[in-house]
Amino acid sequence: MEEFQRFEWAGVHFGEEETYLLQRSLTKLSHDTKAKSIKFWGKIFGSKKDYYIAELDQEGNAPDGAEPDPEDPKLEARGTGVNQYNYFVTNDILGEWTPLPVITPDQLTQSRKIKYIFTGNLDATIVTNPPFQWSEKYYLRAQIARISHSTNIIPSGLWKINADSDEPTQEELLQAREITETDPEEVKQATLQQLTSLKNWQHYMPAILKEGRTTYSEAPDFVNEMEEAEREQWEKDRARKDPLEYRLKALSDDKPLNGYKQAWTLRTCGDTIEYDTISEKKEKTSYCVLALKSQVWPGAMTIAYGNKW
Amino acid sequence: DDNDDFVIKVPQKNFTELDRLAFVVRAIDIDCAALPIGAVKLSPTHELRYNDTFKGLTIEEAAKIENYQHFRDPISEEKREYIARGDASFKYDFLDPVAKDSPNGSWAVHTDSSKTCVTVRSLLWPGFVNYHRANSSVFGFCYFGDGIKNSDLPFLLSGQ
Fold this sequence. Notes:
The structure holds two protein chains of two kinds. Chain A is globular, with a radius of gyration of 21 Å. By secondary structure, chain A is of the alpha+beta class. Chain A has helices spanning 2-10, 16-33, 105-113, 136-151, 170-175, 192-195, 221-224, 228-241, and strands spanning 37-44, 51-57, 86-90, 98-99, 153-155, 159-161, 179-181, 201-203, 264-269, 274-276, 284-286, 289-294, 301-305. Chain B has helices spanning 17-32, 59-62, 77-85, 153-156, and strands spanning 34-36, 40-42, 48-50, 68-70, 107-111, 117-122, 128-133, 139-143. Chain B has a four-stranded antiparallel sheet with strand order 5-6-7-8, with no helix packed on it. A two-stranded antiparallel ribbon of chain B has the order 1-4. Chain B starts with 16 loop residues before the first helix and ends with a helix.
């Protein structure tokens, strides 16, 4: 409830009634699925009906009533990569939540090529050029994956890259995929000044490659049969065509769309004065709400307030 | 000494964001602003007045796009003649109907979960909302968006 209030300061609000219904509905969903954690992901407008989407962390287990995972060697298993979380969707807050299926790399690559307005009907066929073979349910899931991986951000310093050596080279930093939480003792509370700079915000989730996965898929058989040097060349070619992004990439490094100066805009709403707190650490606190809006995905917003976001 | 043939030279001015803003506001207003049928009436002297006896549409009527009309000077021939003939003072549907907007399907009608309010959203100007609370005289419209028209709309509507 508190979180919704913060969003209201930044200008995003559902209205009292809808917020309350949403809360109740999410509580019921978390009881029914016994998920480890549940988060309201957002709302997507459709021409006939809207979608409300919830993100659940079920630790790699498929939810009841979900479709069986498709047979695809390139699919990232539940609990990893793009399929790390399970998503549930509903048209009506007072209704039942339906689980969305996992997403395969093919579905992701095809979804990047089309532009489509949601209708609100999960089973609607999508008629576009280039063609999208599956129904609206899969397109919705693909968009959710793309949006999450582009707009899930955290202030810098809270997580760090798990590199193999103590002094990693640029190459090693690029290849590193795992991140670990920084020791809470080492974390310095960020001041408002620092948080208002895009340099101090990072992407939390890994970027999705052109292939439609977060990590490179297994090389095909003919490559494994090549000689060492040839294989390295093949992998270099692949990395050139489908480059990896750094984990924990700073927002200031995000490329903006044509005509825009930045990929993110930052707004401070409310009282921006920093006050001293009564605690021993002599920290400063501020009561303003910082809103970070993505220009690449209009509608994606991250709010920072005090030391929460 | 004022001469009618005197050509007024407009001073040079850069094209500012203000000009663009003024244009966009006007364009959105003309394209999107709408009212439920019955909300305004034409007086015998051809003045537009709010209808004091408007009790609101029922929830079923409000959910139909045919019951909304544009809040602007009619553009369609049919309605202009209607007004010129003088029939408009007796009926309420003398303005351009929203349902005839092209491309067909560029409006999305949503009833909220409490079944009391209806919002009519524009897909042409994403972020424009016409709202009406059923069985009351509460209606209006609002725009929250980035002022960019969705020109791809005809390609996105597939005859749903």
